[in-house]
Amino acid sequence: MDDVQSSAISGDIAAVLQAQRSAYIAEGHISAEVRIDRLKRALNIVLEHQDDFICLISEDFGNRSAGTTLFADVAASVSALKDAIKHVRKWMKPSKRSLAFPFGLMGAKGRVVPQPKGVVGLITPWNFPMTMVFVPLAQMLAAGNRVMIKPSEHTSKTSAFYKQVFEQAFDTSEVAVINGGVETSQVFSSQPFDHLMFTGAPSIGKLIMRSASENLVPVTLELGGKSPVIVGDSADLDMTVKRVAMWKNANAGQICLAPDYINIQKGREEEFVQKYTDAVTSMFPNMLANDDYTSIISKRHKERLEGYLDDARDKGADVRIINPLNEDFAGQNHSNKMPPALILNPTDDMKVMQEEIFGPILPVRTVDTVKGAVDYVNSRERPLALYYFGDDSAEEQSVIENTISGSVCINDLVWQGGHENLPFGGVGNSGMGHYHGYDGFLEFSHQKSVLKHPKLDLNKLAALIPPYSDGKLEKSMKSRIGK
Could you read off the pLDDT of 206-232 as tens digits, one per residue? Predict the structure, then answer.
């Protein structure tokens, strides 16, 4: 892109931002009725166009089942928007706060008022094109903000449709969609928003944060990472395998909360491999012509995943491809599908153990003890999620207390990201800040402290008015501080 094009993009984006900021300031207080109206308009987009979204998302992926999109995108979006509509009046109410003694007794009053931040930028990923727009949008609109959305260029048809339907339902001074490639994202992230949210890879998150820092824009980053599974001795292996196999291969593993590698006690790995292979075969007896099996989003991403397998083989790993019908993925694969794979005996120098996988590949590590697995997790970057399987309550508590992750799910996977009353977000390398429900409302609101003093002169009563030579201030302070 040349300087002229870059300048034009920057000017267009800046103009929308200025229009939204001017409209926000002119509007003044944003009532519950206005917020609910905007939320309902967003909800209507989902409900009225769900069939369009299902078709477009499948076309963008190459293949993705209607069931996957209904469950993971449509239902999740509807849930978040309805939750915000139901609770926004309650969320908006100021909260009373107690004050330092004796000011409260003298008539001073303190409260915290949630206030919209203003104009919020939202940069979304491609893996769940609806969820990653409408879920945070629900809390942003509930908080009273104007929103500018930059959807992923990898789902170009869906993103183009977003612009169409949002412009039908909203004035661009309320919600605007900005489409474009990487250069557009770079310009977008450099704008002086009042808050910016990004979901994607940690490497890109660092660039987003660096760009936002130039304008001191606060950020919410949901960055994924390598989420581990720890299998305890007490775990029901049949249950563990079925649930891991399901969530590792749902959406072909293209889920930020998908299990990235598994830790299992030595001696159980071959049983795990066999049961896992059987579970995958049961779910996907064929894959190339199976609409239930999702494509990898692009040829480039598929080649990246295949590179992980080649690198692991070259470095001595035992790679097991799960392809029940021995289908020709090389010659007859026109939609970038990729068969699931297990990598046994992975080592830390392999790319698959260094980078977030985001595909249907599962490394299987063997450990002597659960503590050994915990030590390994703690030696690496903090993950977005951690999963423990087992019926040992003491061991379960130990895993929770001795690891740091964005979230933990016990005896299942991914579900913790589907509940609006649980905050969702990472820690360290897996992100910062959180959203969903009331926690998202707080994330995208400014918590303004308001203190009101009575006509009674509290400064005089506290002996703060000079001169201090009479010793009254010293005596007052010592009485407050105590021994």
Answer: 999 999 999 999 999 999 899 999 999
Write the pLDDT tens digit of every residue in 119-154.
Answer: 999 999 999 999 999 999 999 999 999 999 999 999
CA angle (394, 400, 402) in 5-degree steps? 95
pLDDT tens, residue by residue, 368-402:
999 999 999 999 999 999 999 999 999 999 999 99
55 belongs to the catalytic site? no
Name the catalytic one among 167, 214, 256, 356.
256
Q: Using 50, 70 and 90 to split pLDDT, how confident is the model at 474?
A: confident
Residue from 222, 269, 395, 396 carrying the catalytic annotation: 222
The answer to whether the predicted template modeling score (pTM) of the entire model surpasses 0.85 is: yes
Task: Note if 409 is an active site residue.
Answer: no
